[in-house]
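Minimal example, chain plus glutamine.
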Amino acid sequence: MKIGVLALQGDFDAHRKRLEELGAEVVLIKNPAQLDEIKGLVIPGGESGTFLKLLGEGGFEKLKKFVQMKPTFGTCAGAILLASEVENPKQSGLGALDIRIRRTAYGRQIDSSIREGRFLQEHGGDTPLEMVFIRAPKIERVGPGVEVIATEAGDPVAVRQGTVMAATFHPELSDDTRLHQTFLKLVGSCEASG
Ligand code: GLN
């Protein structure tokens, strides 16, 4: 299964390693034209404003079409890019997830931290999950079609809407592989249903 990792900027290599460990064939996406080759995409952490600049208008439109059609998983800056509403400061989002997200919401004092949150699985499972937060955004509003798949201190930190997933933390930096596995399962089920 060919999975792309957007490799314009940020920590794309940790995602590449994790996905390869889980058996995926990874394509590093440096040019939006490469999106045509892949079944699913991971948008890594980094700096969301810089992603927008590097994508340019054409790249943004191409990516917007991709995320409407194919499974996509955004982490941290990737989650910001996928949102419908972005604050602090306001900036464009791809509108794939009906959420409002606030950039760098924990302030400079708690720049980075490792916390234990909860992973909410299908059928009511609820287990601990290590979460690495780095200049993390906060999901402030979750629309009616959005499922919360992980929480930290009661707040949503990972969500899914249709075939789009996002986490405000960095699952690629923890040993726990379950979020990436969940994403690969999503890609597999989309491929099976055509
Ligand atoms: N604060 C960054 C942004 O606004 C995201 C940080 C990250 O991806 N680790 O884009």
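The chain has four helices and twelve strands. Helices lie at 12-21, 48-69, 77-82, 178-192.
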